[in-house]
Amino acid sequence: MRQGIEKLRERLQHFQLEALLVTSLANIRYLFGFTGSSAIAYVAPDLCFFVTDRRYRHQVKSEVQGAEIFVAVQDLYGELKRAKLRARTRVGVEAQYISLKNFAHLRKTFPDVKWIATERIVERIASVKTPDEIAYIKKAAEICGRVYLDLLPLVKAGVRELELSAEISYRTRRAGSERDPFEPIVASGQRSALPHGISSPKVIELGDFVILDFGAVVNGYAADITRTVVVGEPTAKQKEMASVVGESLQLAAAAGKAGMIGKQLDGIAREYLAQQGYGDFFQHSLGHGLGIEVHGLPRIGDLSEDPLEIGNVVALEPGVYLPELGGVRVEDDFVITAGRFKNLSPFSREVISVG
Predict the structure, then answer these.
(1) Of 218, 119, 108, 214, nearest to 161 (Cα)?
(2) How do residues 121-170 score in pLDDT, each as one tens digit?
(3) CATH topology classification for 131-354
């Protein structure tokens, strides 16, 4: 039985639940190790049902242990009835991941069950990583570091953003990544001032900031890094922006510790950027948790009450975005230890000149 399932069973009593219906594929992967694209699971203190469709009838047997497995004939939710699900009065559902159609189907099929909307029960368990999980994320971050260095000679005037994005996907896979955890972001010139702009056909020009935001995945676990470069010799203003953003990340990482809440850590970087005159130009949260989900718990933003715990892995990504000039963002991945934040992506974050 995987460790996460036992931890989930311990949490059911805390939430006064008799079972939880798990429908998030990321949570399915975490709890059971299942890598398919279609599954639900029902976890109770004394039993566990796992349902997938017939495409995975052989795969599920090799990946899922400790659960009674059902292969759906028609739909996954209908299979729960064939499993002779015993009556429970309070069963949790993952409110963020179940559709209204499927929820209505559950209520109709199991009228005696009181279905309780829950939020992030599994995610909070998964946010505290084991040493093996941390090692997977570190390996993914190392892949990012190697690919970044290989990519630098290709970043120059005349190259399209989409060409570099394709190179990132190709090179991370060649280096050992299972997939892209998200579509690589290459944004140049004024487009680099879009905090989460996508890669476009734009041609990179001399003098452009170029933001490179991408990740890698090892054994299901994601790293997420961002670096910014300048094509040609940077101006004094570009140097200032780069210095301020880099320092804000350094200050936050140095001050971060277990026991803080997300908005406290966010506030360290945000206050420094405001002191330097860039407070209005930092337009997103400082960071987020990493794991099977590339944007997970804890959330690190100006409104976040999420606690920072030993074993969390977080990505910190301060940025400054000036519409008329462009933007700078740098991002590293850290594991929270008893004493400090330990950098899992310790390659240069300096905003350098290329091309």
Answers:
(1) 214
(2) 999 999 999 999 999 999 999 999 999 999 999 999 999 999 999 999 99
(3) Creatine Amidinohydrolase (3.90.230)
